[in-house]
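Issue 218. Parser rejects a valid record. Input:
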Amino acid sequence: MSGGEIGQPIAPAASFDYESKRWGAARLAPRPWFMNGLKLRYLLSDLEPIHGRVLDVGCGAGSVAKAVKRARPDLDVVGCDLSRSALALASSPDPEGVEFKLATAERLPFADGELDFVWIFDVLEHVDSPEAVLREVFRVLRPGGGFHIVLPLEGQPRTLYRLVGCGKRWTAKVRHGGHIQIFSAARFESMAGECGLPVVRRRWSYHVLLQVLDILYFSWLDLRGPVTGSVEDMAVGRIGFLGRLMRLAAMSVATLAWWEARLLRAFPGGCGHFTCKRGVRL
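Output the parser choked on:
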């Protein structure tokens, strides 16, 4: 396998079955004991000055979009995804005031400059052409509109991902997570700037603990076989003693990772949280 850092996808996006996945179904809040709580906290910080219509690209089963709507009921929140099964789960039993649309990240169902803010959580690493996605975000944002992206940095120097050769020697995340693009912060920032979305702020997470657990988890999936949701989604859905134990473990790991990221926030980690502004495309 090749690609990733040099800009070529490791595998075609169509080779991964997104209809079989149910990512993002568990309830989310910007608190340390939620696995994506820190991601949500950083997003809500960027949304503080925003009013109007906002979009979650690749919303999955809707946990982030719904959490934003609960925190900011004044916003007109829309979520879009290519997975019909994920959107069905997002809309049932209650979409919680969020409008969900079937769409790909490369072709968003909005007019030029229609949106005030767009965010993407863990999507750009899944697509054949990240530049096409960023150009589409540029198109639908109003001039000066905001863009927030959470991106795995599996090509970032001085990370365990780089050490194990993520996407090259070690390919578990390609098979079980659909990660067909390998990003470093430098690669993303260069690409975003060329697409008219220059980075104005950088935040980091996945410094040590979550890198170790991420590599171990996806290596375990090579032995166990694929699963249909995230660890947190599976823990919420499991009943009985095992379910309580899984939820306690997930909450403990999330809390430790939150404080590790806050303590090491000045240092790049294995995940980047980038704040961008719609400028002029080169």
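Fixed in the parser; the record now loads. The radius of gyration is 18 Å.
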